Amino acid sequence: MREIKVGVIGCGYWGPNLVRNFNDSTYTDIRYICDIVQQRIDSIQRRHPLIRGTRSYQDILQDDTIEAVAIATPVNTHYEIARAALEAGKHVFVEKPLTARVKEAENLVNIALRKNLVLFVDHIYMYTNAVRRIKDCLTGGELGEIYYFDSVRINLGLFQRDINVVWDLAPHDLSMMDYFLEEKPVSIVATGSSHTESGFEDIAYITVRFKGSLIAHFHVNWMSPVKLRRIVIGGSKKMIVFDDLDPAEKIKIYDKGFRVARPRKKAFYQSLIQYRLGDMHAPSIDNTEALKIAVDHFADCIQNRKQPVTDGIAGLRIVRMLEATDRSLKKGGVKVAV
Length: 338
Prior knowledge:
The protein is α/β, with parallel strands linked by helices. Helices cover 33% and strands 30% of the residues. It has nine helices and 15 strands. The chain has helices at 15-24, 38-47, 57-61, 75-87, 102-115, 129-139, 165-180, 290-304, 312-330, and strands spanning 4-9, 28-34, 52-54, 68-71, 91-95, 119-122, 146-156, 187-193, 203-209, 215-221, 223-235, 239-243, 251-260, 273-281, 336-337. The strands form two sheets. A nine-stranded mixed sheet has the order 14-13-12-11-7-10-9-8-15. Strand 5, helix 5 and strand 6 form a beta-alpha-beta unit. The longest helix is centred in the last third of the chain and has 19 residues, at 312-330. It is globular and about 75 Å long. The two termini are 41 Å apart.
């Protein structure tokens, strides 16, 4: 596979990780970095002196040798930069969430389809081996019928200046839910509050409803004294706990559950529920860096005209849920259709 020439736009929090992985990949050749802050460019160029730096992303888009760009800028700039890159004929790798509005995401998807370009959204958890292992369990029916999806993603900070805690933290867990579950959500109810002058919610609770009895719940919080990254998926056969902060046992599969007995005669409620308390299994997980897998997958999709696992359409679905969540928050927790 030949090396794909890449430019990285945005060298703040996540940008240096993109630079490192695009530089280390055998399938990509990073030629440019861009940031409006010169010190960030200087910092990366001290480690990678052969990479050209610029403060204008237009310099990258006007270079015909550049085939793809990676965008790690604030959410409200994603649409403008990604649209310009696609129109310039570049494949696009963009940080989550895809855009700040549904209409913008729809436009990017349409442009990428029209120009036959790869639009890749970096919902990074889909490229972790832990999440892939959980997907295999669900696809294989190991958990049985799924009853609920419960997620907690909390920590102290970082308070954002342009988005609320939902747009900052929830895309990770919403994208995993979207990846894991075959059913699609029909409505969202969200409540939250702000404790700073910005007015942006720093704590929120999101409930996602599906057609049947399946339900999903998300707790995101910038005001927690502890950091938690935990998902519980309950099924009729087994249940899974995914703890992203546990270095040894990220996934625990529990052979636990219950069934409703149907007695012939009238009985107390307690006699109707029969519990199953089986063993716990923690499978071994390969800890290859997710961003390395994502970068290699992006390159493979470009070279072999494949559809990314986290393509623009997947990114659009997450933006739809985020926008519905915002509407519910602003209206005091009313039910909003997705």
